[in-house]
Each structure stands twice: as C-alpha cells, then as structure tokens.
C-alpha cells in the first residue's frame, strides 16, 4: 500500500478517476430524468429495471463501488452534494448492466483476455489511461508511468489489486459498449434523395415580407376561458399534460440571518485580531491559529493574483504592513499582513500549439513539420492563435486555446524553455521549436516575473451566533407545535405575521424548494411520512429553519384540471385570441392593411435571405410552421393564411424565391446526414432501451 501511494504521488497517477469517467461514458453522460417514477409497495425496493427488482442492498453496494473510486481519485470522503451525483452514477450503472447485458449476449459481443491486455499495456492503451498518465510538461501520454504502476502491483496489497481488477472490468464494459454503439452507428446510411433534400434545404433562399401580431394585441379581458374550455383542451392534448409524482407544499421560513449584535461582535473580534496580527512576529502561526479562511498563510508565486479584496482596497502594498479589515463578497471580514516581498524563481506565461511526432519516421515528421509551418504562417497572416490551437493542438491545452499558464524554466524541456525565456517581448515566436514531443508554435503572453509575496490572512465569517440560531429555532418550534393541520398553519402564520410561501408541483426527487437549497429532507417527509393537511416538524436547512404543510400529493399519470390549469389557460386563451385576430384581418388584401389593424402591437418586416432549413424567422423568433408555409408558396406576391405560432400570428408574402441549383455530387450532404445521425446513435440507443426496459425509480423514498 505504501509503495502504491508513493508511486501515485510521484507519477501523478490518478487511476481512480477512471472509474467515475467510465461510468459516465457507459451511461451516455445523461442522468436519467426522475420524471418517470411510480410509488412502489415494497419497502426494500428502490426500483425496477427490465422487470427485475432492484433492492436497497444491491443499490447501496453499487453506490459503495462508485464511492470507492471517488475516494481513490480524490483521497477524501465525498460531500453530501457529491454523494448525490455518485448515487445517480450508481443507478445509471445498474441500468446499463441490465439493459445492455442481454444485447451483448444475443449479438455475441465479447472482450477477450488478449484484447484487454492490449487495452491496458499494449499498443492501443485506452483513452481513460492515456488521459491520466501524462507528462505535466507536455500534456502527452507517458508510458513510463504506466509501466511503473503495473510493475508495482506485484507488491501491492489485496485492496489495490482488487481495485485494479475493478478498473479492468470497467475498461472491458466500456469496450463492449463502444462495439455495440459502433455496430449500429456505422450501419446508418443516407440515400442520394436525402442528400439532395439536405442540399435543397441548405441552399433555397426566399425574399419575404411578414407581419407579426403578438397575442398581447388582444387584451386578456376580451377573452373568457371557462373550466369547460380547459377540460376540453386537456382531453384533446393529453400528451402535453403528463405528471410525475409531485406534491404541493407551503412553508414558513425562519431565517438565521446575523443580527446587528452578531455583526458588531465579528467586527470587534476582527479589529482585535488585526491589532494583534500587526504586533506579532510570527505571522504564519498567528494566522493559522485565528483564521477561519482557507489560506491563512500563503506564498504567492510570480504571476499569481493577489487576493482581490486586498488589491481593490490598497494601491501600494508594502512589506510589513497590515491592511484591513475588509468585507468580502463571501460575507466575511478579512485582514492581511504582507510578511515579505522577495524575488522568487522567474515565471512566465505562454501558449503553444503542439504537433506531435512521437513514434513517427523521418518522412512522417517532415510532413508534420510542413503542416506546422503552414499553420504558423496562417497565424502570422492574422489567424487567431487560440482558434488555431483549438483546431490543430494535439495535447490537453488545445481546449483552452493553447494556454500553458504560468511556469518556471525548469518546468519544461530545455529546448522549449530556452526559447521561451529568451524572448524580450510578448507575442508570437516566428519559428517552430522542436522538442522530443514534436513541433511547437509558441506565443508568449507574459514576460518573466520574479515578484513574490508571503501574506498572512485572518478571515472571520459573518454568520448568525448561537443566540440568533436558538432564537430562530424557538420561533419555528413554537409555530410547528401550535400548527397541527392546514387550518391552524394558516391561522397561526397570519396571527404571527409569518409569510407563507407556495411550492407547487414539487417533484419527488427535488432537492430544493424554490430558492431554498438542500431541502431534500422536507421533500422526503412529504412523500414518505406526510398525508395531505399534515404540518411538518422543524427542518434545518443551510441558513434557515422551515416548517411545511402538505397541501396535496399527486401520483404519476394524467394531470388533473388544477395541475394543468396554468399551462392550459395560456394555450386556450391564445387559441381564442388567434381566432379574434384572424377574424379582424379577414378580407384584408395587403400586409400594410393587416398591420394597420393592430397599429400599436403588430410589426412589418422584410427577410431578404430566409433559408429553407431555418426554424427562426428574423424579428419574430421560433416559427417553423410559418417558414414551412412560406416555402410552400409558388408565385411572387402570394400570401400565406394567418399562421398560429407560439408567439403570435404571422402572415407572410413571398417576393421571390431562389431555388437551390442542382450539383453533380450530393455525397457531402449524405455524409453530413450520416455523421449527424451517428453522433446521436449512442444517446438514442440508451433512451430506446431504457424505454423498453420500463425503468421504475423509487429511490426518492430512501435518499
């Protein structure tokens, strides 16, 4: 164990992160929405997948596997917020195991022992390992680190060997998923007819005038919406009004805000500590003993930003001086003492674009060099460096525009560092730099700096005192004790001047109540312990106490009138307004006349280059039906009928249309369709198989 730990520390090996990453890959990176849940009858049952019951114990075991991987990676126990994410990953892993297992078996997909060896130590190392075993100076895969780690397993303890066996299983599972996805993705094909249609959609242009009449052109007072109207609309559009397990709650918040006395006490304490810090000769020890902040004593290397609350309040920072107290954006008070200012190891900042040459012969290297020289020339002629880096860079810096951050000379290979530190001004270096990793294009963004600081900081939180917390709790507890039902809840809140806050349609998996975070226990109470009309005990949240009343609870299925009222009212009202607008403009021959019918609300615009494949009408917004109708017109001067979009009514007149010209080859359009479809394949497969597996999720009862 000690050997493994030592190797991990020295090589930067972070194998543990692979487990979490692979679980994300295996589930497609999309957490299953909790909107499809059913109340279960078995108290030990957390869900069903493909007709198979998932017990609480099995789910907890899977959570522990994911949690173990997290701890291996981070070296710490996950927080409750992180545990929420880990539980989701564990649930998705269980879905994947059951949903895809039968598919693999029926297709005969396997990963052989020889293939697995190749994946972890052969010529085709899996991406998850390659991304973790990188040389920090180049951002490239370092095989030496992998060899060192694998050799160390012979002397490692059983826990580490078991952990590595788990990693190999994840690698194999991921490879099976890749094979399965690729099998379907590569079977996708677009016909010539589809390619031709894609070309037509992309290149057919219309010049069109259009009038837009928003629904607010008709006042709400002129439209009556009855319950009978709403019921008819809901019945006709049942798919729009599906609901998951939900509850309507109301609650009273007893805030734990610091009082004036609390603030005065903190100010008095930070003022006292400031004077003591000014007088002490042991800055670091004093700060670490008295500060509640994260960095009580820190060395700021060249290029590192000093604390914002220091630099915004002090123009000239002098050694030995004490500054503060200042209030921060985190509602804390902070005082700084500049212990020392000194010349540290020079550090500079640069960006680069790496063209890798590892494993290439001379001819291939020459081709890479020529490509790099071409890109360098493009940058010299105006191509944005960050854009070029994101397009051509072959290491981890590409996604951040090639930025290497601040670094010292010894942090990089000699050839790179010597050239970078030798320049006298910022900007692009006009030649390629060759290292053992390949050819680099380098842009210096900050010249070397040596100015370094050691700064002590004492930070105290401005929070509620125990007296303030106790007072808030006593008020909440007294209110809950006197409120045994909804009637008393409302009466007592009114009598004592407490505001009742509504939270309707709260999902069974919700973690917040409106703007109150970490309210999961309140939601669990509503779905597990409470009946309609019940008033809760006192719940403690981050900065408040809450007492809740359960007004109503709904099971998954079709929404009733009250649940659908708000959404249905908007739709029905807009339909009636659309009818009134259509009646008012009936018989009007020109767009100008139509606009004149609603002079204050309607707008008349021209779109000279409207694309057939677009779904947005300039000046209006999302309007696919209107665009479809426009391209259905045949002759110049023709007008559409009034078109009902979500935003209002549109009438358009075609001025001219420029059809797409035929081309000899539609392969590029066919390839584009095929590529787009292939990119969606993995997600669509996952969604389809989950639907067929009829996943039922009851975890809200337990977590």
Please give a structural write-up.
The protein is an alpha+beta fold and 703 residues long. The protein has 23 helices and 22 strands. It starts with a helix and ends in a 6-residue tail after the last strand.
Major sheet details: 7 strands, antiparallel
Mean pLDDT: 87
Distance between the termini: 34 Å
Decide which structural class fits the backbone.
alpha+beta
Radius of gyration: 33 Å
Share of helix, binned: 40-55%
**Unreliable parts:** 1-42
Question: How many E-type strands?
Answer: 22
DSSP helical segment count: 23
Short account of what is shown:
With 703 residues, the chain is α+β, with helices and mostly antiparallel strands. 45% of the residues lie in helices and 22% in strands.
Key words describing this protein structure:
4-stranded antiparallel β-sheet; 703 residues; 7-stranded antiparallel β-sheet; 22 strands; alpha+beta; 23 helices; 45% helix; disordered N terminus
List the helices and strands and how they pair.
Blueprint: H1 2-11, H2 16-26, E1 45-49, E2 52-55, H3 56-74, H4 80-107, H5 113-121, H6 127-132, H7 143-152, H8 158-185, H9 192-203, E3 205-214, H10 227-236, E4 242-243, E5 246-255, H11 260-279, H12 283-290, E6 297-300, H13 308-311, E7 322-327, E8 332-356, H14 362-380, H15 385-392, E9 403-408, H16 414-422, E10 427-428, E11 433-435, E12 438-461, H17 466-482, H18 486-496, E13 501-507, H19 520-528, E14 539-540, E15 544-554, E16 557-558, H20 561-585, H21 591-597, E17 603-611, E18 616-617, E19 621-622, H22 624-630, E20 643-645, E21 648-658, H23 667-693, E22 696-697
Antiparallel strand pairs: 1-2, 1-22, 3-17, 3-21, 4-16, 5-13, 5-15, 6-12, 7-8, 8-9, 8-12, 10-12, 11-12, 14-15, 18-19, 20-21
Organism: Belliella marina
Subcellular location: Cell inner membrane
Domain PpiC: 345-446
């Amino acid at each position: 164990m000690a050997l493994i730990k030592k190797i991990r520390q020295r090589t930067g090996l972070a194998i543990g992160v692979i487990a979490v990453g692979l679980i994300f890959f295996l589930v497609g990176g999309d957490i299953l929405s909790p909107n499809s849940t059913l109340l279960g009858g078995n108290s030990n049952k957390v869900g069903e997948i493909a007709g198979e019951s998932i017990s609480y114990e099995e789910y907890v075991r899977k959570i522990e596997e994911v949690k173990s991987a997290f701890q291996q990676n981070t070296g710490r126990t996950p927080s409750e917020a992180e545990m929420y994410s880990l539980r989701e990953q564990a649930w998705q892993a269980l879905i994947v195991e059951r949903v895809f297992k039968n598919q693999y078996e029926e297709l005969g997909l396997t990963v052989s022992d020889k293939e697995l060896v190749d994946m972890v130590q052969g010529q085709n190392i899996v991406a998850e390992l390659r991304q973790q075993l990188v040389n920090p100076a180049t951002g490239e895969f370092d095989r030496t680190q992998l060899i060192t780690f694998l050799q160390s397993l012979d002397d490692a303890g059983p826990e580490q060997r078991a952990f590595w066996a788990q990693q190999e299983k994840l690698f194999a599972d991921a490879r099976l998923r890749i094979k399965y996805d690729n099998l379907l993705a590569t079977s996708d094909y677009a016909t010539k007819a589809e390619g031709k249609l894609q070309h037509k959609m992309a290149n057919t242009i219309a010049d069109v005038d259009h009038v837009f009449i928003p629904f607010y052109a008709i006042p709400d007072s002129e439209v009556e919406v009855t319950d009978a109207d709403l019921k008819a609309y809901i019945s006709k559009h049942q798919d729009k009004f599906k609901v998951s397990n939900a509850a309507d709650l109301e609650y009273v918040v007893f805030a734990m805000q610091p009082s004036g006395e609390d603030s005065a006490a903190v100010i008095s304490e930070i003022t006292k500590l400031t004077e003591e810090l000014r007088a002490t000769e042991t800055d670091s020890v004093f700060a670490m003993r008295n500060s509640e902040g994260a960095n009580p004593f820190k060395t700021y290397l060249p290029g590192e930003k000093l604390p914002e609350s220091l630099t915004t309040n002090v123009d000239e920072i002098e050694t030995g001086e004490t500054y503060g107290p200042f209030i921060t954006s985190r509602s804390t008070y902070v005082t700084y003492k500049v212990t020392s200012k000194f010349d540290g190891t020079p550090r500079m900042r640069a960006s680069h674009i790496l063209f890798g040459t590892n494993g290439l012969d001379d001819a291939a290297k020459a081709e890479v060099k020529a490509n790099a020289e071409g890109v360098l020339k493009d940058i010299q002629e105006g191509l944005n460096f960050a854009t070029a880096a994101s397009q051509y860079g072959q290491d981890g810096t590409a996604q951040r525009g090639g930025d290497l951050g601040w670094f010292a000379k010894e942090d990089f290979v000699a050839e790179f560092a010597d050239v970078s530190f030798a320049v006298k001004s910022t900007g692009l270096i006009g030649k390629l730099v060759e290292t053992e990793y390949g050819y680099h294009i380098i842009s210096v963004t900050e010249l070397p700096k040596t100015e370094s600081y050691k700064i002590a900081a004492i930070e105290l939180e401005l929070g509620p005192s125990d007296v303030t917390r106790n007072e808030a709790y006593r008020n909440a507890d007294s209110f809950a004790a006197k409120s045994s039902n909804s009637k008393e809840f409302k009466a007592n809140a009114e009598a004592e001047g407490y505001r009742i806050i509504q939270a309707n349609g709260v999902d069974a998996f919700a973690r917040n109540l409106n703007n109150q975070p970490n309210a999961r226990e309140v939601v669990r109470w509503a779905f597990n312990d409470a009946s309609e009309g019940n008033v809760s005990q006192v719940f403690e949240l981050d900065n408040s106490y809450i007492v809740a009343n359960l007004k109503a609870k709904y099971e998954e299925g079709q929404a009733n009138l009250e649940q659908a009222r708000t959404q249905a009212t908007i739709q029905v009202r807009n339909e009636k307004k659309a009818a009134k607008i259509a009646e008012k403009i009936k018989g009007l021959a020109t767009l100008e006349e139509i606009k004149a019918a609603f002079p204050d609300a309607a707008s008349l615009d021209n779109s000279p280059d409207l694309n057939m494949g677009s779904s947005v009408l300039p000046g209006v917004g999302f309007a696919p039906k209107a665009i479809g109708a426009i391209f259905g017109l045949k002759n110049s001067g023709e007008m559409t009928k009034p078109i009902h979009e979500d935003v209002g009514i549109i009438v358009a007149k075609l001025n001219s249309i420029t059809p797409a010209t035929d081309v000899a080859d539609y392969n590029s359009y066919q390839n584009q369709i095929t590529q787009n479809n292939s990119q969606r394949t993995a997600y669509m497969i996952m969604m389809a198989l989950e639907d067929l597996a009829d996943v039922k999720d009851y975890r809200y009862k337990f977590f």
